[in-house]
Fold this sequence. Notes:
Helices cover 44% and strands 12% of the residues. The protein is of the alpha+beta class. The strands form 3 sheets. Strands 4-6-7-9-8 form a 5-stranded mixed β-sheet.
Amino acid sequence: xxxxxxxxxxxxxxxxxxxxxxxxxxxxxxxxxxxxxxxxxxxxxxxxxxxxxxxxxxxxxxxxxxxxxxxxxxxxxxxxxxxxxxxxxxxxxxxxxxxxxxxxxxxxxxxxxxxxxxxxxxxxxxxxxxxxxxxxxxxxxxxxxxxxxxxxxxxxxxxxxxxxxxxxxxxxxxxxxxxxxxxxxxxxxxxxxxxxxxxxxxxxxxxxxxxxxxxxxxxxxxxxxxxxxxxxxxxxxxxxxxxxxxxxxxxxxxxxxxxxxxxxxxxxxxxxxxxxxxxx
Length: 280
């Protein structure tokens, strides 16, 4: 896969070059791949473009090499336009980065948590589950589509409080040992479940991937704004082994952004967006 070298090179040129004026293209040859990247400034004012390009370079420099390697090569202006669409579409604040380096407070509870009740859309394996309201609505929409194809989605685990996650993690450490537990379970404050945006479907076992439900989700979940959080082969990136049952709702626009620019890896995209929001 091409690295994101030429995007940064073009951004650097745009900051310093008068050729970045509206209507004038910049062509930069990528020596690594032999491809050519072109930037065409059309409707944005030059000062705004320069500021965005400058920030893009600083954000890119703040990322780990692993994350940078996961960002595909392309047109920086197109990338920034897509990024703006994602940020504008995220009216429900669905893109918060939570991982082993970015923790939620012990008292963090989403304000729009709703209890899940038996319904005609999806099945519940427990009666004490809850999700953020827009996420529950998204489950209903996806489950309704699955049901039309003869697939009944089973919701097995959803929102977890800090204390719930603490007890779960400590139990796993006792039973499995810390090294194994850290691959399977998030420490308290580091779980996407505390955000109320993640759902574990079905059996919560590896063989879920081969079930009708698991195969349908793998093929269709993205169309409804759901993203697999911990894909196979990316434990060094996510901090967790493959979890074929754990999906996070991020919205359709973000899923498309993830697929187009971030090797379809949720963690890469969330790390970039976090850096974009925090790097000055």
